[in-house]
Amino acid sequence: MSDAAAVDRPAPVGPATDTAPAADANAFPEGVIVRAATSAAASGAEHVEEAVAYDAILLASFGGPEGQDDVIPFLRNVTRGRGIPDERLEEVAHHYRAFGGISPINEQNRELKAALEAELARRGIDLPVLWGNRNWAPYLPEALREANERGFTKLIAIGTSAYSSYSSCRQYREDYAKALTETGLEGTLQIDKVRQFFDHPGFVAPFIDGVSAVFDEIEAALPGIDLGTEVEVLFSTHSIPSTDADRSGPPERGFGPGGAYQAQHLAVAEVVMEAVGVGRSSLPQWQLVFQSRSGPPTQPWLDPDINDAIGELPARGIRAVVIVPLGFVSDHMEVKWDLDKEATDTANENALYSVRVPTPGVHQQYVSGLIDLVLERVNGVPTADRPSLTPLGPWYDVCRSGCCENVRLGFKPALAGLAP
């Protein structure tokens, strides 16, 4: 998800132009229905089982300010085209200013890039890792220009978001398309993406480890506490507008209210709880909660808000709360502020013992899992051999038509999926 707490859902932006010309499907060569894809993915198969000799990995993220002077320009980037005055942006800026104007996300991406490179080297795989952000330097167009300068033509992209929704998948795909147009490299570079990895073992394992360790911590800190009746697990993710959530995932899957976005989180939470329950006589109750809402009060967003959920726990006899940042891959601003500050303060106000589980970050299984996702496409791994821990996966290599629509912005050209 984005690293912009309390700003309404932005349109795709970059360092220069805001829009790209609509792709003309009739201009594609015969048999090609996926824009700027490799030949293996060009026909739009749900899962690409043909090996592809990629030249490099494109690590794509949201970006964040790296000093006090960067904060407002960064927020202008995030909200470009929406006419939000600097006074409103300053209301959001205090989250960043409390951390010296520095979002943790860029440093975390540097660490992830280095960890990916180390894992590739350990396995003897010669695939450079390029890094580009959507809203702050280094920008995606810079990464594409670097790829071109180094003679690369086939890129496999990893977005730093595991789930399906407009802001966590389609918006990345739109920004890939816009960056190709801006750089004039369409026709020169081909960009595919790994599947959404919400239920890949490498993403889920760190949460299983973290929740299990926290249960042990709580039992040590509060002797005699009953995990089954006095502890609650809150799986937290970014709230999004209900209209976006309902349209997340392929329309033909018919997920209903909350769409694939909510269904994926619920499925992963069930996997985590089942895994941590092995060898335990009882387990806490759990629920999926949401955070970081930023839209106007009149616009429905997914709920309940984590702070509201925490406020209801004491009346049920809950003494401790476990906060699991299930929707996030690293400890960026929405984890450090919205969970470690606001949600933790709410827990303290309600006299609850609270512990926040770590995000995957550079956990070895997570890093290794990301490389495994790349190798699925490099080696053309059969769908039946691809790991997924829920019945919903393995998710699609090529996003389906109409997937993750944003009704306010409409469909814009996007890579790694069928039009629109």
List keywords for this structure.
Ferrochelatase; 8 strands; 2 domains; heme biosynthesis; Ferrochelatase_N; Rossmann fold; disordered N terminus; four-stranded parallel β-sheet; 420 residues; 13 helices; cytoplasm; alpha/beta
Task: Characterise the protein shown here.
The protein has 420 residues and is of the alpha/beta class. The chain has two domains: 25-197 and 363-385, Rossmann fold (3-Layer(aba) Sandwich), CATH 3.40.50.1400; 201-356, Rossmann fold (3-Layer(aba) Sandwich), CATH 3.40.50.1400. Helices cover 36% and strands 11% of the residues. The chain has 13 helices and eight strands. The chain has helices spanning 71-78, 86-97, 105-123, 140-149, 166-183, 201-221, 227-230, 242-246, 259-276, 306-311, 333-336, 338-349, 364-379, and strands spanning 56-61, 129-133, 154-159, 190-193, 231-238, 285-291, 320-324, 353-356. Strands 2-1-3-4 form a four-stranded parallel β-sheet, with helices on both faces. A four-stranded parallel β-sheet has the order 6-5-7-8, with helices on both faces. Strand 3, helix 5 and strand 4 form a beta-alpha-beta unit. The relative contact order is 0.19. Mean pLDDT is 93; it is low at 1-26.
